[in-house]
Structures are given as structure tokens and as C-alpha cells.
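Progress report, Aim 2. The chain analyzed during this reporting quarter is listed below.
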Amino acid sequence: EILQDHENMIEEAINEGVDEEKLDELFGNPKRLAEDLKLVQEEEVKVVENTKIDGYELVNTFPLATDLKSVKVKLVSEDTVVETHDGESIEVYFKDIKNTADYDVDYKNGELVVKKERTFKIFSINISKSGSVLIKLPKDISLEEFNFGIVSGDSEIHNFNTKSLALKTTSGNLELDNITAEKIDINTVSGDCSLKNIKGLEMDLSAVSGDFQIENVTIDGDVVMNTVSGDFSVTDTACKEASIKTVSGDLKGTEFYPDLVNLRSVSGDIKIRNTDNLRPIEVGRKRAISGDISIK
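Predicted C-alpha cells for the chain:
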């Protein structure tokens, strides 16, 4: 259609007496125009293709989100992935979500919000899986805060920096990898949590019956670990001071090096086994009712 309009304009110019030398100056080379249009069309096709990734369909994109400072995610039973990509845009994808109108996906004043709006159904309580959400953030972004809350969906969060990281889940599992944050606060009821390649200044972990698997974590300040019946497995991890409280859950540490550790157990066992004799652990408070506490 564009080429046809271009040809019509050239014909009108010829009819009005414009010579051929002037035509190229006014309208450009038709062959070159066709080639340029072909390239544009190919790029448009690529954009359309990129709206779908592994079954996910793009529902909203916010270009040039270089001022992104805050991410707030509040979902119910959706499996969710938050990761970074090489572009400068924020992209939000859905998969197998029946009613997208139930969701608010918005970005303004440097804050991204992805949440499911409250829907009330009489005599109906349903927290079964309701699809998946994929959130892509700009790769080199540094956030002020990342707040994430979910009830029963499983979640993966990868590869970004933030000052504050707050995660809360009821029965969904959490997987975190390659995260840097000044303050880390994770609270889970019955879901399991995996933390790998984490760096921070302070970290507070709380579980009722969910298990924590912690690997290759470096915290320059203090770490607090509280559990009722969930177990903690800690490997290749270091911090300044660790405060560990358990009711019936166990903690097993291997190559776990806090400078100072405070231990309290009702019936759970706390065992730390290290091989580096040049990194002794100072024991502050140590109290156990029926559980065993051992550091070697």
C-alpha cells in the first residue's frame, strides 16, 4: 500500500512536469524504498514472534523502564518467574490464565505493580493453580525495593540487585538465585525455600513447617533463622552473627561460618560441621531443652 501511494505521487509529479532528475531528490529511489520497507516488515514480524515465549503470551510491556525502582507482586496461586533480560523494557507474560481482567499490571513513577485483584465468590474457596506469570526486568537495573507475596503458587526469582527484598508465601515454594540485597526478609508457612548465590548485609528467615536450603550465601551483617518444625540446611555460607531458634525443626550446617552464633532449641537438633580450623565460631547464647546442639 505504501509503495502504491509512492508510485501515485511520482505519476502526479510527472504529469505536473517534474523532470526525472528531480524525482529522485523529491521521492527517493523506489528500489531502495522497497528494500527499507521489507526490513521494517521483517522487524515487525520479529516483534510479533517475541510476544510469545515457551507458551507465555505478552500481556503488557513498558519500554525504556530505566527509572524502575520498585517492584510489587501480589498473587494467589500462579506459578511465577521473575528474571532479567538484555533489553531496557519491562515485560509481563501470562500462560494459561483464563481471565486476565482479574489482574492489575501497571507501571508508573518508577513502580511496577503486578497483582491479582480480589474477586469474591459466594460459597467458593479455590486456591488451585490458576496459570503462570513471567516478569522480565531490565538486566542492569538496581531496585530500591522488591516486595513479593503469594499464597500457593511456586516462584523463581533470579539475577537482580535491590536494597530491600521482602518475600512472603503460604504454601508455595520459593527459589532464589543470584540476588544481591542489603536487607533480605523471607517468611514462609509450609512452602520450601531455596537460596543460592545470595549476597547481602542482613537476612531474616522465618518458617513454620517449610524447609530452607541455603547454599553459597554471604551476609556481611547478621542472619536470623527461626523455624517451628521446618528444617534448615546451610552450606558454604558465612555471616557476622547468626541467631538460630527452632522448636522441633533441625538445622544442619556444612561449611557454615558465622563469626558468632546464638543457638536456641526446644526439641530440634542443631549441628554445624566445618573443615576450616582457621575460622573458629564463637558461641554466644546456647540453650536446648531436649534437642542436641553440636559445633565441630
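Residues 42-49, 120-127 have pLDDT under 50 and may be disordered. The two ends are 79 Å apart (CA to CA). These observations will guide the mutagenesis work planned for the next reporting period.
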